[in-house]
Amino acid sequence: MGNAFAENSNAASRSNTTSQILPVPNATTPYWRTELHAIDEHRSTPDLPSSCDIAIIGAGMSGVATAYHIVQAARDANKQIPSIAILEARQVCSGATGRNGGHSKIKATTAMEQIRSAPIEMLKEVWEHVREQPYALKKVVEAEGLECEFELRRTIDAILREEDAGEKKREFLECLEKGYRWTRDTSMVEEKNAEQITSLHNAKLAFTGLACSFWPYKLVSQLLSRLVSRNHVNLQTNTPVTAVTESPEGLNILHTARGLLKAKKVVFATNAYSAGILPSYEGKIVPTRATATHITPKKPISPHLSHTYNINHAVPSTGPERCDYLNPRPDGSIVVGGAQWTYSKDRSKWYNIWDDSSIIDEARPYFEGYMQRYFKGWEDSGAELDSIWTGIIGTTADGRPHIGEVPGSKGRRYIIAGFNGGGMAIILTSTKGLARMIVEGVSFEEVGLPRLFKTTEERLR
Ligand SMILES: Cc1cc2nc3c(=O)[nH]c(=O)nc-3n(C[C@H](O)[C@H](O)[C@H](O)COP(=O)(O)OP(=O)(O)OC[C@H]3O[C@@H](n4cnc5c(N)ncnc54)[C@H](O)[C@@H]3O)c2cc1C
């Protein structure tokens, strides 16, 4: 297949101001992309269709779940299913969704931090929205028969420093007293039992809550294959969109090296790369590099680590945050990511960079011997780092995603992007609301999405 990336391959950072933010070729291979689906580089038609009702740019979790819910919304509203095309720059699910930690959760420490940053009534909408996510995901997985190692699990937020433990305990007790919804699913484990329950050396405090663990690539690629086989989506992989302009009659024109596509409505499901084709999001959604790894013991360790983790070496309220995430796989291997602080001082390594074709060298030594260092019972596991990869996060200036109608686009352009480090706890339920906006023409407020997620002119100023 032709390579439409030529201009972008060697210039994936804003230090070269002539380059456009687009996915680069030859990305590092994440563990999640080692068992590829037949749809990975699929094109439904040899040529790009010349027109469609709705064009979705990006075949990650956001793009595919939006398509899925557009079909559902049309059915629910007794409307004809619109023609949908998905244009993906690289392979299916080759962006952040194919490179992440594979768990979806409310992180207790984040919920506590959020209280400092937004009005409580608005946060309650977010917590309620996130609470629905595990059940919504489970329902789609079961309804569509997606084989993606989906599991409802407990997740642990462990605190390793004494001073952080004291602060987080106080904050949690306050939240509990105020009856915030997320505390109903969350238990606190005090120092006396923290090491034993978490299996982490030196754990000083922990919170446990509900999480989903799954293989994100398998979920997304299988869901997309269902949509394609039902002829609900025309999929075009290896087709970067380089610009979106408007025709005199008010149609969107998507520009690609393979030709033009006219669409009544466009959904930008482009996460970290959004500013590349939506300049008003420049500086508001910034691509930042992150690292994750796959670690395998010589033989599976029993008992199995059955929780997912966030391991807080330092919480943000007491200094620069140091947090890893960890997701034990059913075969006994582990996906671990984080280590941002090993290179964070040098912003040229990670900030406003969208190159996932190389790894950040400083991160690798941190993950070597990781399980032996931190986990009880793993000291003699012989666990080894067997793969390391880079992923690009869509970091937003205010820490919130941008969802809804692109300001000033007269109902013709929508965005769902900017998920920072935790989108899988938000995306599915958000796309349900977004799809209703697109199909029924109703407002953001009418579909009941959390107000903090709305993309607005004010947030783009
Ligand atoms: C290392 C890492 C670890 C993470 N860990 C977790 C975790 O454990 N839990 C969690 O909830 N979240 C995690 N996240 C965040 C999570 O992965 C994202 O929030 C989520 O995957 C975003 O999904 P998306 O579909 O919006 O974006 P993506 O999956 O990035 O999809 C966007 C797609 O758009 C395509 N695209 C972009 N521009 C164009 C263009 N111009 N033309 C055509 N196609 C284009 C890209 O190729 C890509 O396939 C992590 C992220 C990273 C990088």
Short description:
This protein is 26% helix and 24% strand. It contains eleven helices and 17 strands. By secondary structure, it is of the alpha/beta class.
Mean pLDDT: 94
For this entry, what is the oligomeric state of its chains? single chain
Number of domains: 2
In whole angstroms, the N-to-C terminal distance is: 40 Å
The CATH homologous superfamily name of the largest domain equals FAD/NAD(P)-binding domain
Q: Based on CA inertia axes, which overall geometry fits? A: globular
Please give the CATH class of the largest domain: Alpha Beta
- Ranges where pLDDT stays below 50 over 5 or more residues in a row are 1-11
Q: What profile does the largest beta sheet have? A: 9 strands, mixed
Share of β-strand residues: 15-25%
Order of helices and strands: EHEEHHEHEHEHEEEEEEEEHHEEEHHH
DSSP helical segment count: 11
Radius of gyration: 21 Å
Helix content: 25-40%
Going by CATH, the architecture of the largest domain would be 3-Layer(bba) Sandwich
GO cellular component, one term: cytoplasm
Protein name: FAD dependent oxidoreductase
Region (Disordered): 1-26
Biased composition (Low complexity): 1-19
What do these coordinates show?
26% of the residues lie in helices and 24% in strands. The protein has eleven helices and 17 strands. The chain has helices spanning 61-76, 108-114, 120-144, 162-178, 191-198, 216-229, 363-367, 370-374, 427-440, 444-447, 457-460; strands at 51-57, 84-87, 103-105, 151-159, 187-189, 205-213, 233-236, 243-246, 252-256, 259-268, 285-296, 308-314, 322-328, 334-337, 384-396, 402-405, 413-417. The strands form two sheets. Strands 3, 4, 5, 6, 11, 12, 13, 14 and 15 form a nine-stranded mixed beta sheet that branches. Strands 1, 2, 7, 8, 9, 10, 16 and 17 form an eight-stranded mixed beta sheet that branches. The longest helix is centred in the first third of the chain and has 25 residues, at 120-144. The chain is globular. Bound molecules: flavin-adenine dinucleotide (FAD). Flavin-adenine dinucleotide binds at residues 22-23, 57-63, 87-90, 94-97, 99-104, 240-241, 269-273, 276-277, 290, 292, 325, 337, 391-393, 417, 419, 421-425, 427. Residues 53-429 form the FAD dependent oxidoreductase domain. This is FAD dependent oxidoreductase. InterPro entries: FAD-dep_OxRdtase, FAD/NAD-bd_sf.
